[in-house]
Amino acid sequence: QVQLVESGGGLAQPGGSLRLSCTASGFTFSDYAMSWSRRAPGKDVEWVSGIYSDSTDSDYADSVKGRFAISRDNAKNTFWLQMNNLQPEDTAVYYCNHPEGIFSWGQGTQVTVSS
Predict the structure, then answer these.
(1) Which of 14, 57, 79, 93 registers the highest number of CB atoms within 10 A of its CB?
(2) Per-residue confidence at 54, pLDDT binned at 50, 70, 90?
(3) Which DSSP string do the residues of 51-86 spell out, in sequence order?
(4) Which residues pair with 81 in a beta bridge?
(5) What would the pLDDT profile of 1-47 be if each residue is shown by its tens digit?
(6) Cα 104-91-30 angle, rounded to 5 deg
(7) First-to-last CA distance in the chain?
(8) Rounded to the nearest 5 degrees, what angle is found at the Cα of 105, between the Cα atoms of 11 and 100?
(9) Closest listed residue to residue 112, CA positions, set 85, 90, 96
């Protein structure tokens, strides 16, 4: 049974940092590219960042480029999103999945950026 569990969200002040984690189970994690997406209140889901299965390449939405960093450890079936210089517009529920959303979605983790 495929399971994706996001964690690490919370409340941050503008300019602050958070590190999101996604732990996967039920499939061969090292075979798949993975990505983070987010849904802000009243908005559509936005792709945020993706990483190749072997970490040889990654990409970011323009809105987060230079502030966020994605990484993974296939031995731990886990990947992360380091979020720096957070801004109020980063407030959203963050989800992890394959870039094409082929796995069952987790509950997400809430990130709130507010002073």
Answers:
(1) 79
(2) very high
(3) E-TTSS-EEE-TTTTTTEEEEEEGGGTEEEEEE-S-
(4) 20, 70
(5) 999 999 999 999 999 999 999 999 999 999 999 999 999 999 999 99
(6) 35
(7) 40
(8) 110
(9) 90
The pLDDT assigned to 55 comes to 93
Token digits of residue 97 = 């999945």
Please choose, from the candidates 113, 112, 77, the residue with its C-alpha nearest in 3D space to the C-alpha of residue 4: 77
Angstrom distance (rounded) from CA 8 to CA 22: 9
3-state SS class at 90: helix
How big is the chain by its Cα radius of gyration, in Å?
Answer: 13
What's the pLDDT score for residue 63?
97
d(CA 17, CA 73): 21
